[in-house]
């Protein structure tokens, strides 16, 4: 093992918005351990996700491509296996690759197991090859896949996994404790004994809705006037609120933000455990440690909850911290605009790698030169959940206003959001970081310039999007629906 082939750990904190991290300026100390890691590495202050939700955002991190190029989004819920991904690239040069996912979107069912020697699904207590259904199965084949669980599989494993998934998977937390036990065992028992470099990808699901951190973390940021009972009674049904069915007050959202901060503090505690594990096993300084998020969260901002139907910075601005002595200068903060698509080319340059299949495909830029992206682009190719689906689930709701395709372009100072319903929005991010004052009709020259750039980008990058019938098993649907995803 040497500096030319470091171990790599990529940690994705699902639904973690940068503005809620203390190292990104939040007034509450929510992330003391991550803050410490940032002091030993580089923190990128303006990292923009290319998508506001899990599936396309993870696909962009894995490929270095925007959703319109990798093609994994609401209209096509599968990461094509012919696309080179980070774990596959590393596996091909001798890395042992391990994936640990706690989000059902990030699984074999949606094409994310490609390139992993080991892929661990947290919703299974006993790891089993077939996860109830193959998302690529169609027609008669999908029924054969389902029957294969009984015919080919072990019914005792199926029952054990079913009981675990329903009653125990989230009994304590969203899986962070079990993830760390797995990582601890790997680092102590296997990876330290091997001279083979390793890549570990971890998806932590905290602080995703529902916000309910385990004790003693749950109420740590609540106002003294709010009891635990009161906090538990606040609405956390995002679709009920956004469909204008469930009214919510300013106090309700203050409670939700406090509960979200507690989830983030708890997750930070678990990240601190991983940091200590790396120190204990003498792997810390020979490991490229990357901490980021797939997307953020709306908690009442813009009259929205959850992470759909918009491209505001509450969803797009995510943390990005890289620690690797000798490469990323300790305590440095980079203000340039960067994106999570930049992770793949950064690792490629660090390892002096070239992959012919990536030429002309990867749209990210290496961050070893601190990032020099002038514009960040983000895409919301189709609503998720689809409007017709969520309207059936909530027939009393009003969701028609969300039925739009969105594309945003962001510079250091300005941000333009272009909507397919012609309700464009222009914000001065430096003066109005909360994106409350739409200036498109005031700064017309800036609007026209950015609109021409974004129109050109769309013409060059976005092809016709076709629906694809991707079969997903009923159990996977239930797991996704528990996270607020409907399809």
Summarize the topology.
Blueprint: E1 7-13, H1 32-39, E2 42-48, H2 54-63, H3 67-70, H4 86-92, E3 96-101, E4 118-121, H5 140-151, H6 155-168, H7 176-190, E5 198-204, H8 228-233, H9 238-242, H10 250-280, E6 287-292, E7 298-299, E8 305-306, H11 313-316, E9 317-318, E10 320-323, E11 332-339, H12 343-350, E12 376-380, H13 387-393, E13 406-410, E14 414-419, E15 425-428, H14 444-461, H15 474-482
Parallel strand pairs: 1-5, 1-6, 2-11, 3-4, 3-5
Antiparallel strand pairs: 2-9, 2-10, 6-10, 7-8, 12-13, 13-14, 14-15
Helix pairs in contact: 1-10, 7-10
What would your notes on this structure say?
The chain is an alpha/beta fold and 487 residues long. It has 15 helices and 15 strands. Strands 1, 2, 3, 4, 5, 6, 9, 10 and 11 form a 9-stranded mixed sheet that branches. A 4-stranded antiparallel sheet has the order 12-13-14-15, covered by helices on one side. The longest helix has 31 residues. The radius of gyration is 22 Å and the shape is globular. About 4% of the residues have low confidence.
What can be said about this structure in brief?
This protein is α/β, with parallel strands linked by helices. It is 32% helix and 15% strand.
What are the segments in which pLDDT stays under 50 over at least 5 consecutive residues? 133-151
Oligomeric state of this protein: single chain
Q: From the helix content, strand content and strand pairing, which structural class follows?
A: alpha/beta
Shape: globular
List keywords for this structure.
single chain, alpha/beta, Alkaline Phosphatase, subunit A, four-stranded antiparallel β-sheet, globular
